[in-house]
Amino acid sequence: MLFALAFLPMFGIGGLTGLPLGFSATDIHLHDTYYVIAHFHYVVAPGTIFALFAGIYYWFPKVTGRTMNEFWGRVHFVLSLIFMNLVFLPMFIQGLEGMHRRMYDGGATYALTPDVVHGLSLALKLNTGISHAAWLLGLAQVPFIINFFWSIFRGQRVTSDNPWESTTLEWATPTPPPHGNFLQPPVVVRGPYEYTPGRRPGDFLPQNQPA
Predict the structure, then answer these.
(1) Which of 86, 99, 158, 182 is the most core-located residue (most Cβ within 10 A)?
(2) What is the pLDDT of residue 36?
């Protein structure tokens, strides 16, 4: 849930920061700068990767019959959220300063005047912090890797085929699913997202379960 919810604002930042790149007045300055790097990676890095992690945590019990450790899952989420932003958020500032995306120092190496280097002083300092955050972001994935493989063999076993009380059809298969997934062809009797149905006890009504 945490990764799924965090995906929304992170992906939103990536989308909204693309608007200035669609206007010639602002894109003339921002084109080919680190602003473009930040915008693009807020879509493809936090966006898709957070959604991927959410899917792994969510479907792990169905695939393995066990759950991943929730505490280390939270640690993985918090560290990933912090360092992901520390990597890409400063790049917006670098881009606004005019730091070129294809040169790690924004072109200061090729500058003929010290004014150019002085103008990029903040951007270059941010580059150092970004490098540190990138290494820490990589280390933040270690709890996930250990949690993933440890939980395959030692994770807590699920007590039902639908531990999340989800309504969608994949949770109607045995856990873990056998060859062919379903023991018999499922019969769908309603939409996939019907929660709190009438006066029925419980908060969900699976797609294949009659009312």
Answers:
(1) 99
(2) 94
CA 68/CA 53 separation, integer angstroms: 12
pTM of the model: 0.85
Distance CA 50, CA 71 (A): 17
Closest to 38 measured CA to CA, from 5, 106, 74, 86: 86
Are 100 and 33 within 8 A, CB to CB? Answer: yes
Q: What is the pLDDT of residues 16-26, one digit of tens each?
A: 999 999 988 99
DSSP letter string, the chain:
-HHHHHHHHHHHHHHHTTGGGGSHHHHHHHTTBHHHHHHHHHIIIIIHHHHHHHHHHHHHHHHHSEE--HHHHHHHHHHHHHHHHHHHHHHHHHHHTT-BTTSTTTTGGG-SSHHHHHHTHHHHHHHHHHHHHHHHHHHTTHHHHHHHHHHHHHSEEPSSS-TT---SGGGGS-SS--TTS-SS-----S-TT-BS-TT-SSSB--TTS--
What is the tens place of the pLDDT at every residue in 66-95? Answer: 999 999 999 999 999 999 999 999 999 999
